[in-house]
């Protein structure tokens, strides 16, 4: 690659977009000065076959934006006051490492936590590798609120997972999209969905809203938020009652069926309708479509994992049982079980090196949430590693998800020092105040005097960065060499060439961990000099280096799917079978049967009388990624203000008009968004935009770029005990009330570009 393609001497660089987790292939035309001037989709990359979405087309705007952070900053005033001193990377790394060393000596490595977010390649795996090296189990990253409980349910039940798999045009005959909306969240998978439908596949969508995906469905089940576990039990009930489950598979390959049958017995379609609001007839039709049309895929979706204690457990167990008893596991066109990386492709886990964390000589404690969510712990990790070893000798690639700590428990460990103190937090690639739920608890933690160090590495002066002691400028995806393996769980890897010189002192996220690691590690070879050196280690089994892949004809590799693998190897569970009632749950004292405990509520929430509605914030919109991209003028034109969907009758009841500001309230506080009337929405449900802040509103305390104005995660409930069995937070379905009004406001920002210019 990197050939001279143009007569003016410019080159083409080939990489992939990381503005959302799809990682579509992208090409940049780079001029003689090393500056990218134009871009296009990479038609040779099979993820999106050359297509880019509207977000991807902002790449150069983002790269050149005036608001970007370009130099390391050290706080000189009070936290959140906005007084900074520009310092060198060397000084920042020396001072931060010295503080972390002191904390590790005095309070143990567990007193340091990392908070990361959505998949930003080097930032995620490098922070896990660093945590393992430093000795702290308190690390959080992408996936914490997307899929941990789903992963754990699937791995416990099958010893394998289907999370990152897909449906196949021509082969898949029935697709169930449940708590997910690929029309907005994944252009490549929506395209595939359309291809499947064009070749005859039927579509069932389970969503309280009639989304763009639901609009294409043959059957839409508008479920009451948080009642997915009941719906799954209703579907299981019909499949057993009508004898349309795969009896042979259940007999030969499953344990626990009798217990499931007993639990499902009470979930007649009528009772299921009472709890979920889905008409009984539709439940029967859906069960028959799913069980009898042919190979079926019930896809991963974030909602099931975001329902909080009880509700998420029954939802993820119920969905996993459906995949198994329908006979779809590892069936072509059904539910492919992820293939482990083979010896010729990629080495993931050994390079993350969780083993070092397990045996770390300085680590004496489990994560701050392990006593409440014992599966997500180092003991949980060991149990999963042991169970899955026969399929995954290096460990199941999803095991990072078993280890992630839970954010509210980290916040509590800071403010209440319970179960032990956390005194330093390193934030990178994530925005805890906006995106991780329990925003108020995060704020209390970050402004607490008990927190001795808060570091943020980001591209922008985010609200969390504004409160930090050190702010470090991150490179964008054009400014770094890259490699994606979809967290080690896809059947795929792709490498990317660097296509721009970093502006100012922006650096690759890897460098933060490598620089700190070199100062703190007991192993001088642990951190290669550059990220490329680390990529070489990942890619060693492929027989080619990063450079060879990046500059070669083809920059990616798929692992060819193999089906019915279990017939040879059995399932990677303790019993070798699909455990419909997983023994790994029982071992950790977690209810292993799909017992439904969603609404009417089993967990403390706002009182129903005062807060009669349920809110489901954070549903994806095509033109934004979580709290990212709010700086783009192009995207501001498409989505300038936060929007909350409300049913017209509900709006009338509360005196709210279309297009006017409305207030959404919970005991944690109130936010405002613009009402948009949606007659297809359930009457009891409102759908506020998530992750909302405004970089054009006043920075620093008390406004923090409007973080309290419209940010739904400022009012999502935060106590650790409300998290699911896996530590996932109750981000969807919390009770709320609404009214007309527009109180919370923040003044506009004075445009002083502190620390962001390229000049001294
Ligand atoms: N209510 C509600 N809350 C949710 C969800 C929901 O559905 N509803 N979904 C949850 C899910 S699934 C997820 S994954 C999270 C998303 O949560 P996060 O990933 O925390 O969300 P973002 O807001 O995308 O934060 C990313 C931050 O990283 C910065 N950034 C972007 N690229 C880079 C980079 O290359 N390097 C560095 N250092 N920084 C970068 C951005 O500027 C931004 O500040 O939100 C969760 N929160
Ligand atoms: N444009 C864009 N694309 C993205 C992202 C982004 O921020 N923007 N984020 C990326 C990330 S990190 C992730 S994890 C994926 C997530 O991708 P998806 O899984 O598609 O996530 P959402 O679009 O949030 O879809 C969740 C759906 O669940 C519905 N829902 C809410 N509550 C409930 C409930 O109680 N039960 C049921 N059954 N449904 C419910 C919502 O109405 C919504 O339609 O998207 C990725 N792609
Ligand atoms: S879907 Fe859009 S934002 Fe996401 S990787 Fe592809 S081009 Fe980038
Ligand atoms: Mo996510």
From TrEMBL:
A Pfam family of this chain: Molybdop_Fe4S4
UniProt keyword Iron-sulfur present: yes
Matches recorded under SUPFAM superfamilies: ADC-like, Formate dehydrogenase/DMSO reductase, domains 1-3
Alphabetized UniProt keyword annotations: Iron, Iron-sulfur, Metal-binding
Signal peptide stretch: none
Domain 4Fe-4S Mo/W bis-MGD-type stretches: 10-67
Region (Disordered) location: 741-760
PANTHER family xref list: TRIMETHYLAMINE-N-OXIDE REDUCTASE
UniProt record similarity statement: Belongs to the prokaryotic molybdopterin-containing oxidoreductase family.
Protein name per Swiss-Prot or TrEMBL: Molybdopterin-dependent oxidoreductase
